[in-house]
Design a protein that fits this description.
The protein has a six-stranded antiparallel sheet with strand order 1-4-11-6-7-8, with no helix packed on it. A hairpin with a 2-residue loop joins strand 9 (about 115-125) and strand 10. It is about 0% helix and about 50% strand. It contains no helices and twelve strands. The chain is globular.
């Protein structure tokens, strides 16, 4: 059995170099009050495609079930595509309506296997979202992309708030465990 831990670094610092910004994306740090009451929520601003932010976790066990989770909040972009994948076409992903707090489409691509997704209200307009599944590589990416609609891959221009990203082994999101550089 695996002990609970977060496989991502800088879980509350999306402006950090641990998080790669796609073309057309920028992150502003500490712009909104986070679910824990601190001013540590970040703004992901998308102005072009792909307008995403992602982090690669290394040294994973391929084809093992993982759950990616994070807190998201609506600013002015309704839909977010949230993925756990191998950096290519092997994906498990879910679209989330962050304005209304509902899940959209959840599915797999390539040899990724989508198992489940969840959205849980966390107060003050925040939701903890998660996607569970497998992908075939030792490196797994967790990605956020503001998009135009459910099941769309077209980037939406605008802002969404992020905080508390996590990747853990297992079929459910464990209690959030903040990380810094280790």
């Amino acid at each position: 059995k695996w002990s609970a831990h977060n496989l991502l670094l800088r879980s509350e610092e999306f402006d950090n170099a641990s998080w790669t910004k796609g073309a057309g994306a920028s992150v502003s740090a500490n712009t909104v009050t986070a679910p824990d009451g601190t001013l540590t929520g970040d703004s992901l601003v998308a102005s072009g495609s792909p307008g995403s932010v992602y982090q690669t976790a290394v040294g994973l066990t391929p084809a093992t079930i993982h759950t990616a989770s994070a807190y998201v909040k609506y600013s002015n972009v309704q839909w977010v595509r949230f993925m756990y994948y191998d950096g290519g076409g092997n994906q498990c992903r879910v679209w989330v309506d962050v304005q209304n707090g509902v899940l959209g489409t959840g599915n797999s691509a390539g040899t990724g296997t989508f198992t489940s997704a969840a959205i849980i209200p966390a107060g003050s307009g925040w939701y903890r979202i998660s996607v569970t599944g497998t992908q075939p590589a030792v490196n797994g990416l967790v990605q956020f992309q503001p998009v135009t609609a459910d099941a769309s891959t077209t980037s939406a221009a605008g802002t969404v708030y992020l905080w508390g990203a996590q990747l853990n082994y297992g079929s459910t999101a464990t209690a959030y465990l903040p990380t810094t550089s280790a």
